[in-house]
Amino acid sequence: MQPEKLARFKKMLLANLQAHTEHVREDQAAALELSDDGVKDTVDLSLMDVNKELALRLGERESQMIADIDQALLRIEEGSYGMCARCGKLIDERRLEALPTARYDAACQEAIESANGDDEHSTL
To answer: What's CA 101's distance to the chain center, in Å?
Structure first.
């Protein structure tokens, strides 16, 4: 991949990293705020538990995105960014524009999802 394009993807990934890091901070702060607000009613406690669980799951998702972005940035540094980790072919730039953390080209991604029986949600 051309250095200018790599620089553009790196800039995009760094911006995404900053945004996801901020979301994790916000989610952690929200979970801490929910921990004790003097609520004693069982319905309120149940609602608080649901809200805490939601905040933690959102934090997990954001943390996974941060890990994926870190891996993509590492691939840029190693010189393997934009190459499919499964077959070694170049990943289409349109795919990288849509999903800059992509590790697989579309054909390999489809094969992985078919093998896993996961047709609803794509992985990286």
So the answer is: 8
